[in-house]
Amino acid sequence: MKANSILPIRLSFFLFLLAFGTSAYAFELVCPPDETVGCNENIYDLSDFGNAEYKDYSGWHDAGYPTVEYNLNHCDQGTIVRTWTVLNPYANVYVSCSQVITVGDNSSFSENNISWPLTGLEVTGCNPDLSPSALPPGYQEPTWTAGACAMIGSSYSDKVFTLSGACKKVVREWELINCCDFNAYTGHGIFKFYQEIDVIAGDLPSITCPSDITVETYDCTGGYVELPELTIPDGDCSDIVQISNDSPFASSGGANASGIYPIGTTEVTYIANYGCSTYPTVCKVNVTVIDATTPTPYCMYGVAIALMGSDTDGDGINDEGMVEVWASDLDKGSYASCDSEATLTFSFSDDPDDNVRLFTCDDVGRNDVEIWVTDEYGRQNYCNTYVRVQNNSANIEDCEDSDEYSTLSGHLKVHYGGHPGEVDVIAKGTAHQGTDELITEFELIEVYTDSFMNSSGVWLYFYETDTIFTETIVTNYPTYETHITSYGGVYTFEDLMHYHDYTIHVQASDESLSRVNLGDLVELRAYLEGIVEFTAYQKLAADMNGDGEITTADYALLQDIVNNVDGATIDTEWHFYDQAVDMENNVDEDHECEEFCKVMDLKEDTYKVNLVGYLLGDITDLEVAGVETVADALQVEEADLAELAMEYSITPNPFSSSIVLNLDKATRGEATFVLKNQAGNPVFTQEMMIDNGSNSVSIDILKPLTAGIYIYEVRTSTEFVTGKILKL
Question: Could you report the per-residue pLDDT of 510-519, keeping only the tens digit for each?
Answer without folding.
Answer: 777 888 988 8
